[in-house]
Each structure stands twice: as C-alpha cells, then as structure tokens.
TrEMBL record:
Broad class of the protein's primary localization: membrane
Classification via Pfam families: BPD_transp_1
Domain named ABC transmembrane type-1: residues: 66-278
Assigned keywords, A-Z: Cell membrane, Membrane, Transmembrane, Transmembrane helix, Transport
Family: Belongs to the binding-protein-dependent transport system permease family. CysTW subfamily.
Keyword Cell membrane applies: yes
Descriptive protein name: ABC transporter permease
Organism field: Paracoccus pacificus
Compartment annotation: Cell membrane
Length: 290
C-alpha cells in the first residue's frame, strides 16, 4: 500500500510575503505620520523639547473647538446608532422581504465610505439655500426651511451631513450582531410567558448592549476624525478641531505648526480611547454570541 507523502511546508519566511505590502503601507501612511505628529507636539520652533504646545490647548478658542467637535460627534453617533439599529433590525428580524437585505448592505458599504468634498457638494446641492430639495419645498409647499431656522452650515447641518455615513456604518456593524441572536432564546422567553417587550428588555438588549455601546464609540471616533467633509461644507463658519488644526498648519494668520501638531495629538488621544472602548466591548459581545 503506497504511503502518502507528507504535505510540503513553505519556508516560514515566505508566509510573511503576503502581508509585506500591508505592513509597508501601515508604516508609511499610518505609523510614521502618527509618530511625526506626536514628536512635533513636544517640539518648539527651534526643535527643542517643550510642553508649551500642550499648555496652549487650554486656550478658550481651542477648548471651544474640541467641545463643538465632541458635541457633533455625540449627536451624529447617537442618531446614527438609533436609526441604523432600527433599519438593521427591520431587515434582519422584521418582516421585510429578504431581497431588501442585499441592496441595503450594498448601499451601506458604499455610503459608509462616501465623505469629503463629494459628500459636502451633494448636501449643498440638495439642502443648500438654492438646493434641489430646498427649492422644491419652497415652490410646491410654500415651506422655507431657512426661514424656519435651518442652516446647512451650522451644528445641526453638519450633524445631518455626518449621518449620511454614520447610519450605513451602524448597519454594517450591527447586522452580524443581530444575526447572532438565536431563535431559541426568543422561543424560550415566549414559553416562559415573556412578552416581546420583555424579551427585548431582559434578553436581547442586554446581549446586544456591548455591541451597541462599542459601535457608538466607533461612530464617535469616525465623526470626530472627519476632516474633509467639515472643511468643505462649513469652511471657517463652524469652529471644530479639524478646521482649527488646518488653520494652524496651513493658514496665513494663525500659522503655528507645532500647536497644530498638539491639536492633532489631542485628536489621536480622543479617537484612540474611543477605538479602544470599541475593541474591548466588541470582544465582550462576541463572547456573548458564542
């Protein structure tokens, strides 16, 4: 009886060739720029070590910009989580036709990465002062949303714009968690006399809570770090951290690159904390589902 030959094993070093491009990309465009920002935050114009840049972050206008950015991120994350969860639950657990799931997830995958100048232009063309929807509401229904207090170049205008990519991102992340809810759990709850509300309050939501809270943290980091969309939409009309940072690094009046590095370092800290919370809570939710 012929013996089967042992499977050939590739050299250990060859196994790393597939990830070399990714490692180089991460090194050149993520790690090295991040380290440059961190080092620059602790240097002065002469290249010496200083803590003045971090102390200057306590200036009222910078504190206000961080506060506004945090408020926009919280508002867009909260609304994005709520609306995205309801949409995902309607598709996964509701009675919507199964054929709606594929198009929704496909659109969410595209919309979650649609940001920057194209997104800002799309909202200006739609909800600007002479945007399509603004003019249709005025001509057909006699409703002037700007006379009622709406302004696209404001806090709520920027929050509404962020929802375009926050809601799809929520759908993409929470859908697998909803798929993990086992039918046996609902049947067991119903056999014990629990109502649908009691099942969600005592069984489903406690299991989904780590995923929901983790996704909220991820959406917060996603909104807090958005730069191009805010700058293209509001310019200097809304004082948020990315716009203030741009003014310090590239501006002609407020130019102070090292203060800009310190602001960027502050953004890294905030988004890093939010992402760490997301990773920790995500691991806990995966253990629940298993």
């Amino acid at each position: 009886m012929a013996q089967r030959s042992a499977p050939s094993r590739a050299l250990p070093g060859l196994n790393w060739l597939g990830v070399v491009p990714f490692l180089l990309f991460a090194l050149l465009f993520l790690l090295l720029p991040t380290m440059n920002i961190v080092v620059g935050a602790f240097r002065n114009a002469d290249g010496g070590f200083t803590l003045d840049n971090l102390r200057n972050l306590a200036a009222p206008r910078i504190v206000q910009s961080f506060a506004t950015s945090i408020k926009v991120s919280l508002a867009s994350s909260l609304l994005g989580c709520l609306i995205g969860f309801l949409m995902a639950a309607a598709v996964v657990l509701g009675r919507l036709p199964g054929r709606t799931r594929g198009p929704l997830l496909t659109f969410s995958g595209v919309a979650a990465n649609f940001a920057g100048v194209p997104l800002a232009f799309a909202f200006i063309a739609t909800l600007g002062r002479v945007g399509l929807v603004t003019m249709l509401l005025r001509e057909w229904f006699g409703i002037n949303i700007y006379a009622l207090g709406f302004n696209l170049l404001s806090f709520w205008g920027l929050t509404l714009t962020y929802l375009f990519f926050q809601i799809p991102l929520m759908i993409l992340i929470i859908t697998p968690a909803l798929d993990g809810l086992r039918r046996q759990w609902r049947e067991a709850a119903q056999s014990l006399g629990a109502t649908s509300l009691q099942y969600w309050r005592m069984v489903a939501l406690p299991i989904l809570f780590p995923s929901l809270l983790g996704t909220f943290a991820l959406l917060f980091a996603n909104a807090f770090g958005a730069v191009a969309t805010a700058y293209a939409l509001t310019g200097s009309q809304l004082s948020i951290v990315p716009i203030m940072l741009f003014a310090q690094i590239r501006g002609d009046v407020l130019q102070d690159p090292h203060l800009g590095y310190a602001m960027a370092f502050g953004m890294i800290v905030v988004t890093g904390i939010a992402n760490a919370i997301y990773i920790w809570l995500r691991s806990r939710s995966e253990r629940w589902v298993k």
